[in-house]
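Typical record was shown:
=====
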Amino acid sequence: MIGAVSLKPVQDLGMNALLRAALAGAVIGLLESILWSHGPEDDGTGAMLMLFVPFPLGLLLCRLAVLPLWGVVAGVAPFIIMLLFGACLERLTMPEIMDFGIVQGTLIFMGIGASGYVAATALVMPGRKVLSLSTTGAVLVLYCAVAVLQGSIDEAARAVRIDRSGLPLVAVDGYRPAWVDEWGLPSTLRLTYQHEGDGSNVEVFVRKAKAATPKAACAQPDPESDGRPGACRRVSRDVWARTDGARAIVVTRRGIALVRLVSDSAGEAALVSLVPTLRSITTSELSGVPGSAM
């Protein structure tokens, strides 16, 4: 007669436990990525799901992974992730993570989940103090390193968004970039340039050339004009201009770009004189320039 065999696995309190914790956290991160990409369209409902789903699923995964004090790990890990995320990664938003692409964004979500569950397991793991402290310290160092690099991560995400839109970047000679407004992407990119001498501003709205003719684009209403819309007039081939009160508007086509120059400080003639100076730039030339994301 075959004796009864215990199927209860032996709980390894060392490195294997941390590896199992990382696996459980990675699954949680994968689920969070799926919820973000394919969850409810209502932002409130989606946020609530992403906030609360890790708790019951974490209990199940931590139990299956036979983690030490698995119930405590499942309850503590989501709070560790939120704490680290809020303290170290306040500028790294969910949209920016996914802006790197579905695969890359999902891997980042999985890495965040894995780090949180590893840290939680290390904190509650009895014995193995050196391993526990070194693991927790490594997670903190990793998050601090990412926090230091947030500016570079922001700029990399912005470059991905702009490249994905297919819109060319246009600069004005004699002016330095001062602001990048992405709210109109993927159809429109708004760049604010400041004169290197007198500090006057020129706004450059970039769309694809096929979006409209310069004449039609010139006639389009300007929501920020405070004066009576002026009549568009042709200045030269593919260059049209108008003045709304104190706001001058010049529209032209440059290669594959439809460019709209707008200024409250520079007059219509000054904007027209800038048209020949328009040039293409790369996203790297916007490095360090503040802006607003989508």
